[in-house]
Amino acid sequence: MSEIASLRPLAAVLLPALGILAIVASQRRPNIREGFTILTALATFGTVASLVPSALSGATHVSRLGTFVPGIELTLRADPLGMIFALLASALWLVTSFYSIGYMRGLDEHSQTRYFAAFAGSVGAALGVAFASNLVALYIFYELLTVATYPLVAHDESEKARAAGRKYLTYTFGGGVAVLAGTVLLFWTTGTVAFTPGGIAALATADPVIARAAFALLAGGFGVKAALIPVHSWLPDAMVAPTPVSGLLHAVAVVKSGVFGIARVVLDVFGPETVADLGVGLPLAAVAAVTILVSSVIALRQDNLKRRLAYSTISQLSYIVLGLGLLSPAALIGGLLHIPAHAFMKLTLFFCAGAIHVETHTDDISEMAGIGKRMPLTMAAFGVASVGMAGLPLVAGFVSKWYLLIGSLDNGTAIFALVLLTSGLLNIGYFWPIVYQAFFQTAEDSDAKPLVEFPIGGARVRTDGGERAEDRDDDAEEAAGEPEAAEAAAGAGDVPIDTAEPVDPEIDPDVTPSEEEGDVEIDARIESEGQYAVDRNPSDHLQEDAPGAVDGESDGERDDEDEASLSDAGSDGHADVHGGPSGWERRGFGEESTWFMLGPITVAAAGAVALGLLPRGMVFLALVQRVVAEATGVVF
Amino acid sequence: MIDVLASRGYFLVGFLLMGIGTYMLIGSDNLVKKVIGMNVFQTGIFLFFVTSAFVSGASPPLLSASPPYVSPLPHVLILTAIVVGVSLTAVALALVVRIYEAYGTLDEDTIREVRLND
Amino acid sequence: MTDAIALLVAVPIVFALFPIAFGGRWEHMGWGTAALGALVHLGLSLTVAATVLSGGRFTYAVGGYTPPFGIELVGDGVSAVLVVLTSLVTVAVVAYARRAGPHSNTFYSELLVLTAGISGVFVTGDVFNLYVFIEITGLATYALVATGRGPAAALASLKYLLVGTVGASLYLLGVGYLYVATGTLNMADLASQLSSVGYGSPLVLTGFGLIVVGLAVKAALFPLHTWQPGAYAESPDSVTAYISALVSTAAAYALFRIIYAVFTPAFDAAVPFALDALVILASVSVVVGSVLAVLQSDLKRMLAYSSVAQFGLIVAGFAIANATAVTGGLVHLIGHAVMKAGLFVGVGALAGVAGGRTVDDFAGLAERAPLVSAAFAVLAFALVGVPPAIGFAGKWHIVLGAVEGGRWGVALVAVVSTLLTLAYFARVVERMYFRDAPAPAEESVAAAADGGDAELASDGGSDGDGDASGAASDAGAEPETISMTARIIVVGAAVAAVGVGLVATDLIAVFEPVLEVYF
């Protein structure tokens, strides 16, 4: 691997810093300020993209910035692994910048200058993480990333946002402290902390106790940002941040920097062989597997869409860590490929959530029945991304999952393959209902969301002999919809009133699901939550006190739906007849929101599909294969 | 024991003075007494130094006298230290005057109560 | 011109006489004299630094009397850097005090005397001379602390005086023991004499113990720190900035010299228990100082307890006794001085805008004073240890040195101290940026809260500042605006903290010759 001394890695990190200056300087002219953001993002992406060919060919660009502390140089190197992350971060920053403009203006948010400047700083720090050539340089940018993202997490300045910001700082600085401790141990043992593909040679012969301690500290420290259980709980709380922040930073930059750190540790510091020798790969994979399953189950119970996406992120990130822990070449490829794959898909999902929030101020899944009518393009993209998250073919998630499955079978640890497949099912379990109810249901005939409502551990017993004798099931069958009148009203009434918090599945066994009570509860809910779309679009059936007994089958027509693949069998046609409890107005494809938001959604979804169809063509797979080849010597 | 006292008696007196001074610093409530205690403490140290300079059977450090001489260096050092001590006492007493003018009392406990009630 | 090193002490004293002598005649000559004196001092210290950088370590015999009979002044890498630091801090504080500080002539005289005393501590090569300069420093500090408003300042000063004198006297007693053991007071000479006397002798050990305790009082290590919070909190802002940057620094430096120039690492090899005990004391100081800092609501007290913790870290670095850790201690010594001075000037400036000095008073301050708030945030994160600022460089070396020396406890404490420091600084930064101001102020556009780049603040903040002060005077909420000097100082400190952190290796290169001699 030859090196070319060049300014481009440095430029890639500095351009966002310059962007901060430009953004702050133009704070009084929002359009110019936004223009600077776009310009900087474009320039950064261009710089990073220009480094791809040489990274692929083995000639890496290096910017040497001198010695930082004796024995450790501050160098930025554009090697293949770094390029994966850098390319991802800079490309998605460009997309997110447009989205941010639409989002912030759509909500007329405060402190936009601080927001855009901190965003630029965060991406610059992320690029520094990507290009760092040794653990200390990575640590520097890692901490800077924390500092730069803190203002974004606490952006809202509400009590909740501040608490989330504090929690974020505590967790991430704690992780940073562990990384520092591990780095010091490493430096002391081997005299170097530079990233060497295949691992630092001296570590193979170092004292195993110290090596394991260093690995544990490093993996644990990076694992905080990678949201491994049990240090994951900052991530759901950080969802209080504006959605572009949740999207780019907490699904792409911050968490990917944690995973990237683990990747560096496994591939370039210890090396797959040493990791296997030390026996620390399997514990890492085990933690990842637990994270995958547990967070998927928790996701099933979340009603707030962003929180559900947060737990989904936690789960998906551990796919990557699982791949890194399994150590076989195929697993490594799968894990590393999932970095960009997940990024595109998750970003699409978050963009959709944000668009929904801006346009309709709806945050909870239980209120999104029938929203496909109001936001067809958005929900279509959501559907596409969900398909990918579950690992179904044609979308990005499938390729990485395929490699992961092969890798876990290669290793002889078939249990991880089982974990992956189960996770796929759980993914379907928590995404499919959202998509289905968006297009094929309306509020009064929708089932209670989220799905898992009963107290885990037992069916509830109704003392009244129960009209509602059936319990809720937690699989996809349920989503097929049972639009029967009594159940529907009761179902609506069973939805917990306080939906701002994660759903607590307490069901009052004394509720006799008569229609009157169902209506009363709907009324009460609307009164107490005036800010929801239900209020702004009060439905006919409430005013008329209709029993809501209309079947979903009445109007099968959809004026503007021209998506054959998603055309419904018909249960959302209430638009004009009685509108449904949330009277979503019908919007045309592309008329539902500004193109600042729809454009990025489309691009991200298209990216996810493209990654699924042409992984090599999208460059990422080629980079990944190169990384794994260098690290393990195996060309897959 | 007795010969320790006999031969190193002066050192012991020095330490005794340091102890008395420390007790006054900590134990007395009156601010002026604390300053006095500080002085006594320092005096103990000075005595220690001066005693250490003594050589038994030696003559004063004069050119007209014959060697061996008592070492003059510690005396010089202690002169400096005494001057430092005097300046410290002066500053301390100036502060005490100012405190008295503000609080009307020199009793440490009373002052603390007054400050808590402020 | 090697006389510069002696003039470093003499010139400020001479300059200090003028305001006292002629103050009756010319009312406001104090500031001018102090400014001139500070500039001359800066020139002298730069001369000394240049001499050291080009020629290496040099010594100067005061009055022509050769050591070990005469007093010797030593200029080497460490003392040169510290003397330059002294000059810079003096210049900054004099500039800041023009608007902020006490304006009496006597204040400026005392400040110059303090400068002389501190310079003396940094350059002297004789242990008794060190006592004299420590006492001069102390006297001037007591007087300066007492210039604060109200009798509380006098009380704090008296407490400082009593405790500090006991400390200095213990130091003197320790010197006495060493003198009795060896018959010499010159540091270099003591080193050879002590090894021939034998490090295990009770005289030597007691001497070491007394000296260390005495200097620990002056450096405010737990549990001898009790004078510090009151002294810092009650003194005027300019004074706090100066003494936090330099006075405890001088004591810690003295500790460094005593341990390495006088006792040498051979002592540690012979009697490891001595430095071990110091390490433990220092580590406890780190933890306790940080915990106490978290409990404070008054910002100056909080920063005072923070100093207790930071000096614990520095002394731990010195006591670990290998080259890496000592390097870390020295780097952190300098870095801490810069950062703390900047933080205190920042607190003084921001308190004027906020109308109070508690953490809650600082709510929403970032909108009203964006530039200084940003610089404050940068300094706070630098002290926490976010790279590439200098706080990180010092910590890195200390932790590395601790690991090399097998002292896992210290390494753990040093690493955890990051989190503890974060605990008390994050509160303040959060209040400043993410809470609304108590009085309704115009929503002026806020500058970026990102702490990594201080240049951004100076570019983007000027408009914001104009807005902020305009907004403030429009709203009529705060009468005070921040002087340009204060802004320059705080932003300069922030830039320096990051900048010196980036060139930390060069700084370490300056220290290396000194440490090679010792190790």
Automatic annotation (TrEMBL), chain C:
<feature type="transmembrane region" description="Helical">
    <location>
        <begin position="371"/>
        <end position="394"/>
    </location>
</feature>
<dbReference type="InterPro" id="IPR003918">
    <property type="entry name" value="NADH_UbQ_OxRdtase"/>
</dbReference>
<feature type="transmembrane region" description="Helical">
    <location>
        <begin position="199"/>
        <end position="221"/>
    </location>
</feature>
<feature type="region of interest" description="Disordered">
    <location>
        <begin position="456"/>
        <end position="477"/>
    </location>
</feature>
<dbReference type="GO" id="GO:0005886">
    <property type="term" value="C:plasma membrane"/>
</dbReference>
<keyword id="KW-0472">Membrane</keyword>
<feature type="transmembrane region" description="Helical">
    <location>
        <begin position="242"/>
        <end position="263"/>
    </location>
</feature>
<keyword id="KW-1003">Cell membrane</keyword>
<dbReference type="GO" id="GO:0042773">
    <property type="term" value="P:ATP synthesis coupled electron transport"/>
</dbReference>
<protein>
    <submittedName>
        <fullName>Multisubunit sodium/proton antiporter, MrpD subunit (TC 2.A.63.1)</fullName>
    </submittedName>
</protein>
<feature type="transmembrane region" description="Helical">
    <location>
        <begin position="302"/>
        <end position="321"/>
    </location>
</feature>
<feature type="transmembrane region" description="Helical">
    <location>
        <begin position="488"/>
        <end position="511"/>
    </location>
</feature>
<feature type="transmembrane region" description="Helical">
    <location>
        <begin position="31"/>
        <end position="53"/>
    </location>
</feature>
<dbReference type="InterPro" id="IPR001750">
    <property type="entry name" value="ND/Mrp_TM"/>
</dbReference>
<feature type="transmembrane region" description="Helical">
    <location>
        <begin position="6"/>
        <end position="24"/>
    </location>
</feature>
<dbReference type="GO" id="GO:0008137">
    <property type="term" value="F:NADH dehydrogenase (ubiquinone) activity"/>
</dbReference>
<feature type="transmembrane region" description="Helical">
    <location>
        <begin position="107"/>
        <end position="124"/>
    </location>
</feature>
<dbReference type="InterPro" id="IPR050586">
    <property type="entry name" value="CPA3_Na-H_Antiporter_D"/>
</dbReference>
<keyword id="KW-0812">Transmembrane</keyword>
<feature type="transmembrane region" description="Helical">
    <location>
        <begin position="406"/>
        <end position="426"/>
    </location>
</feature>
<dbReference type="Pfam" id="PF00361">
    <property type="entry name" value="Proton_antipo_M"/>
</dbReference>
<keyword id="KW-1133">Transmembrane helix</keyword>
<feature type="compositionally biased region" description="Low complexity">
    <location>
        <begin position="468"/>
        <end position="477"/>
    </location>
</feature>
<feature type="transmembrane region" description="Helical">
    <location>
        <begin position="269"/>
        <end position="295"/>
    </location>
</feature>
<feature type="transmembrane region" description="Helical">
    <location>
        <begin position="130"/>
        <end position="148"/>
    </location>
</feature>
<feature type="transmembrane region" description="Helical">
    <location>
        <begin position="341"/>
        <end position="359"/>
    </location>
</feature>
<feature type="transmembrane region" description="Helical">
    <location>
        <begin position="73"/>
        <end position="95"/>
    </location>
</feature>
<feature type="domain" description="NADH:quinone oxidoreductase/Mrp antiporter transmembrane">
    <location>
        <begin position="125"/>
        <end position="421"/>
    </location>
</feature>
<feature type="transmembrane region" description="Helical">
    <location>
        <begin position="160"/>
        <end position="179"/>
    </location>
</feature>
